[in-house]
Amino acid sequence: MSNSELEKKLNHLIERNYDAEKGFNHVLEHIEHKGFYTLMEKSIGERYRFGHEIKAIMKDLGFTPDKGTSVEGDMHRAWMHFREIFSTNNDAAMLDEAIRGESHAEEAYKDVLKDTSLQPGHADILRNHLESIRASEKSLEILKRNVSATA
Fold first, then answer.
1. How far, in Å, CA of 36 to CA of 101, rounded?
2. What is the CATH number for 60?
3. What are the angstrom distances between the C-alpha of 96 and each of 61, 66, 69, 117?
4. In the chain, pLDDT over 70 holds for what percent of residues?
């Protein structure tokens, strides 16, 4: 992968993390089940940290980090809001969308980790992010099953 491709993909990861941070904030503001708060707050903090760690990697590589969310993420949050309005089980709908977002983030991380030019320390940081995202996705799936079972 060329440097410009790697820079683009790392910037995409930053956007994904900002998107997730905003998405988890949206879920936190709109869920009814108070048991979700701890997981959402943890996820928000992780994504903030992940974004800053990726920025540090980019600066180390001489790349310029972009700032802000993606159009795709903005559209996903709009869809979450739309779905929230028309869903009979708001919490389950919100969890569905959070799970979907985690799945997309996982794919973006796996794509970057294919790059053989990543320095080992940088790849380790990104692999740790990926493992946290996978754990978050599993926790969200468990919460969704519990919410769906009680609905």
1. 16
2. 1.20.1260.10
3. 36, 28, 20, 35
4. 84
